[in-house]
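Take a look at the protein record below and flag anything odd:
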Amino acid sequence: MKFTIASVALGLAASCASAYQPQQPQQQVDRRGFFAKGAAGAAFAVGSGMMQPSAAQAFDFGGSIKFGDESIMVQKAHGTSEQPVQSDLLYGVSNKLADRICNYNRHFAEMGGYFRSTAFEDIVLEAKGPITFYDSVTGKALFVAPINRSPEEFVKESQVHGWPSFRDSEVVWENVRVLKSSGETVSVDGTHLGHNLPDRRGNRYCINLVSIAGQPNIA
């Protein structure tokens, strides 16, 4: 499917990125462990900013799952990526947390429910159509949602599972891969996004908001 959409941006002050520190449980959690325990994660407050419209872009999304291998996630100049996350991430997410999760991490996630402490829900519910979510490192389009469901349904499913939850029809497969061995969902450039945790409706991509809070790369 070819789609043109005006994405919604949220400008905010950014903090400097730092190395991943898995010993800080208040900021990250083992996602599979979270679901195994059936726990409800807690969120912590972050800064906010002003919404601004950004340029429209066209790209394909939807279709069948595309798999990748471990070569995508080899060590590069900045963890598994070539560079840190953008300095002006959207939705009011933490840049420090984003850099840890995106670039220095393969197994951990932001706390379940973290997205509820950001502008994510308000932006989704107030948008006049689907929103494009961009890689926090490269600015490439990764997901477009909601597709074939209402904003309320998209938000509700995300609330139930604890993280923004996407379906096959909402993935920009040109830029996203799933590792067969683990279900880890990553960008083609090495950004850790989350995991595929299928349910009775099919593939469900449980994604860290900090990984998809980038400004679009329109160069």
Remarks:
- Residues 3-28, 31-56 have pLDDT under 50 and may be disordered.
- Residues 103 and 138 are 12 Å apart (CA to CA).
